Write a sequence for this structure.
C-alpha cells in the first residue's frame, strides 16, 4: 500500500517504483500524473479513500489471479521504463536542451 504525503498533488514517490519493481501488487492513492507513469488497474491499483482501499484489498486478496497479473504487469513496466538508465538519459537530455549544449 502506498500513500503520498499530503502536501503534494503529484504522483511519483519511490514506493511506486520499489513496490512494482519487486513484483508486488501496488495499491496507491490517486494523484495527478499517475497515469503518465502506470496504467491503473493494469499495472497497479488506485484507491480513492480508506473505504475504497479496504474494498480493493479484500477483492484482490480473494482474486489471486488478478492480483498476480497486475503485479506482473507493474513489474515489467518498472523494469523496462522506470529504471536508472532511462532516468539518467532523460535528465541528460533535459540539461542539454536547457543549456543549449553543442557537444557530441
Amino acid at each position: 500500500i502506498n500513500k503520498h504525503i499530503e502536501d503534494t498533488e503529484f504522483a511519483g514517490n519511490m514506493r511506486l517504483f520499489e513496490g512494482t519493481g519487486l513484483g508486488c501488487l501496488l495499491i496507491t492513492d490517486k494523484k495527478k500524473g499517475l497515469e503518465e507513469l502506470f496504467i491503473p488497474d493494469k499495472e497497479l491499483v488506485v484507491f480513492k479513500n480508506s473505504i475504497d482501499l479496504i474494498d480493493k484489498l479484500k477483492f484482490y486478496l480473494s482474486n489471486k489471479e488478478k492480483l498476480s497479473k497486475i503485479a506482473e504487469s507493474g513489474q515489467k513496466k518498472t523494469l523496462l521504463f522506470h529504471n536508472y538508465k532511462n532516468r539518467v538519459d532523460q535528465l541528460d537530455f533535459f540539461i542539454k536542451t536547457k543549456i543549449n549544449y553543442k557537444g557530441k
